[in-house]
Structures are given as C-alpha cells and as structure tokens.
Structure prediction request, 336 residues.
Amino acid sequence: MELFEQLKELALSTGADVIGVAPIERFKDFPAQENPIWIMPEAKSMIVLGHRTMRGSLRGTEEGTFFSHYPALGLGYVNIDIVPLTARAVCRFIEDLGKEAMPIGDHFAWAATDEYGQLRQRYSVPARPGQPAPDVRLNLTKLAYLAGLGEIGWSGKLLNPKYGPRLIFGCVLTELELPASEIVAPGTVCTRCKSCASACTGGAISADESETVSLGGYTFEIGKFDRKRCELGKIGAEETEDGSYKPSKYSPFRKKPAMLPFESNDICAGRGCMRECMIQLEEGKRITNLFDVPFRRHPAWEVDWEGYNSGRIVNKTLPPNAPKPIAEANANDINE
Ligand code: SF4
Ligand code: SF4
Prediction:
C-alpha cells in the first residue's frame, strides 16, 4: 500500500473523516505571519484532516430546545479531544519514518496577529531578524482548501463535497514529502445561492458585497464578512438604538449560558453558514452525505421577545450574554 494510503487508513481509523495534502510550495505567496513554512523551514507537506460534526449535533439548536450540545460535544470535544488524537497518530507514523511531524489544532491564542490579521501592538518581536513575529497564525480554512478538502463557499466556510460545511480541521506539518491532493474547483459545491447570508443571525455575511480571493490557481468571490457582527450573532445578542444590548430573536436566553470548559457561547450553531447551507446542499444533492429525512422538519423558530414583554437588559458595557474579559472569565461565577 502506498504511503499516503497508509496514512489515510490510520487517520480515518482514529477519527478523521477526510484527509488531504498541500505541498509546501502552495504557500509560497502567503504573508509571513500566516505562512507555515516559517514554523518548520524544512517542511515538505501540510496534511489536513477533516472531522465531521454530526448532523445530529445541530438538531438541539434547530429545534430550539438543547443548545449546549453543539458548542460542547459538537465542536469543543472534536477540537479538544479528537483532533489531537488523529493528528498525533499521523505524526507518530511519520516520525517513525525519520521525518519530523507537528500536530496543529485550531488554537492560535499566542498569535502575533489578531483575528482581523492586524499585528498586536507591543506584543512580540521576531526572535531572529527577518522572521515573522511569534506566533504565526494559520488559517485552517485556507489550508483545507489548499489540501483539496473542498472549496471556499460564499459563506467563507470550507464546503466539502461529502460533508458540506460540517468539517472541523486539524493539521500535520511535516518534513515528509507526499503526493499533492487536487484542489476542488470553485463552483463544485457552492451554488452562490446566498442563503447563508439571508439566514445569518448576525447579518455578518453580505449578500451583495464580496471579496475577491486568489488561491490555489483559482480566483473566486466570497461574501464580505463582518466578524464583529458574527461574534454578536453567535451569542444571540443584538445592539439596541440606545447602545445597549438585548437578546436577539435568534436567542431564547436572557443570560449567557455557562459553557466552561469550552468557553464557547455559540448558540447560533451556524444558522446561516452551517445549517441553512447544509439544507441547500442536501436539497440540491451537491454533497454526498445525505439522510433519509430532510434536516428542517418545521419552519425555523424565532423568539418574540416583545411578546414576552422583556428581553431588554440595560447594560451599557457588555451584551447580556457576552463572554466576560479574560480575567473575569477565569473566575468561578461565569453567569451574569
Ligand atoms: S448557502 Fe449557498 S451561497 Fe452560501 S455557502 Fe452555501 S451553497 Fe454557497
Ligand atoms: S456563525 Fe452565525 S452569526 Fe456567524 S456567520 Fe455563521 S450564521 Fe452568521
């Protein structure tokens, strides 16, 4: 059996669902602060492993009855427990061949750049002249695309031909040379229907404005993305005219649900970028992991807060269900 086939068998048997390889040359035009070559100068390959979140993990939020599952076992458990397991298994195999291999998860808390790609002020300096400042931050969506795991949809999420947007990624950066996976051409999965934009809880994905991306030999458009809106949408909060915050119609919670240890407050469960997109892709048979019964069994819910004659919480500084600043979040009382 060829080396890659052996790696694939190992990765799938330990919990990954898909695997692909981006030769390191595919990163040659990446900015230094997000270029993996600076992490391992002799690296030859970036292996990307995709792990599905279960369609059933979206059910509790879809029904509006069980929200804690998705950020905990749907996402957090896969990120914290499964990704290290599969990536480490692949690394062990490779290092037994005498080549270095580094397991990498979606954890870039030490990055020199913030989520917007801006350098943090007075944070870190290059350890050697000419190097990027530590830490380098990797974009796992771009990595997965360059490793042939799918195309980047209008939503900005990676859409896999089998699982659509339901993949969580881990990587192995290695000195082992492996055959390149073919890049999935834009338009293979995403129809540009823009349902992700219309169903997004935070209005974070634009339906009209786009950004041009040139990557992996293709040029394509993705919807302009407003990260701040997404962060607010994810926690189910909405800004009011007087600058305070209240629960949006997409949240049935008056207060932030406590989610330690995963520190995730995701009650959106990708209403637009994940659930609506998956519905569209399943209906159009654009993906192959299909089910006996359609995902949406009844119209999507919305909370009528006016009807409850409440929901408005006067808090000028924080959304009612926003994560607290780090220092406070470490305290035991994480409820508002
Ligand atoms: S909802 Fe439609 S436009 Fe948006 S990412 Fe999915 S397939 Fe593409
Ligand atoms: S996670 Fe929610 S708020 Fe953020 S882009 Fe997806 S649907 Fe919109």
Residues 112 and 122 are 10 Å apart (CA to CA). The longest strand covers residues 205-215. The helical segments are 3-14, 59-63, 69-95, 140-146, 195-199, 227-234, 271-283, 326-329.
